[in-house]
Design brief:
The protein is an alpha/beta fold. It has a single domain, classed as Spore Coat Polysaccharide Biosynthesis Protein SpsA, Chain A (Alpha-Beta Complex), CATH 3.90.550. It has ten helices and nine strands. Helix 3 packs across helix 5, helix 5 packs antiparallel against helix 6 and helix 6 packs across helix 9.
Length: 315
Amino acid sequence: MFLRKQLSLFKLRILAALIISTVCLVSYHNEAVLAPTPSWSPSSLPFPKKIWYKLGPRGITPKIREWTDSCLSKNPTFTREFLTDASADQYVKTHFYHRPDIVETYLSLPIPILKADLLRYLLLLAEGGIWNDLDVSCEDTPIYDWVPEQFKHDTNLVVGLEFDMGWRDDIFRQFASWTIMARPGSRHLQTVVDDILDAVNTTKEKHNLKSTSELQLGMAGDVVDYTGPRRLTRGVFKSLSEQLGEMVDGRNASNLLSPKLIGDVLILPGYAFALSANGYNGVKWPNGTDFVPGPSLVTHHYAGSWKNAYGGEVP
């Protein structure tokens, strides 16, 4: 009798263990489906050889073709993708299904420039590569030479200063958002995306909006602050501060004469992405020799198609 009881108890324990294992397995599967997290760190992957663009209602004009072709002709191993409104919507739904807040906000944003800003961060977060505005042309330095050899292993995000040299010390040192390079999964771009969602929710509360689709351009204030270069800059500095456990801000990235790596973010001097917006007359190296700016990597042609009351290109 005692032996029979012991066997029954043993069977019950085996059954309980099987039930617990099954529940854990189902729970793990559901969690993986709802919120997949990559098993790799971003730095274990190369920078994808892909250039992203977002088309407006006018499509590809002769000038846009000229500018975008310059990047592909000088980087023949790269591919490019032109997203339309419809394909961008589908992309976000497909790649961010595990973040319904991102999908809802993106699909509901009624202002084209806010949507385009958010899209660039989402594309690079999901797949990495290069984001270029349509009015950006590439200069002679191949994209894979943008990151100096000594920084290639440790760099996950590449940004370039828009305003730096030749400006007052109190100018906000913002990153250009017309060209950004990233490996997939950048924690810094995730912070930028989350901060934009917080800003949209704050605006909705402030103006008693029932839906993101009711948001108007005037409610957002300055686009540069809301989703553009300053949002990008503040988000990256905020994320770096959290990553490194110390304050990182514009003081860490000012008056740059050569690329600077902070954490896993490579910050390029103003001449790299914004030569025309920076002044180097009379600038010298610390040893007193004259400074000659390094090669300009891209040229931004300032088409400014979004600078109107509509906040986007008009057909």
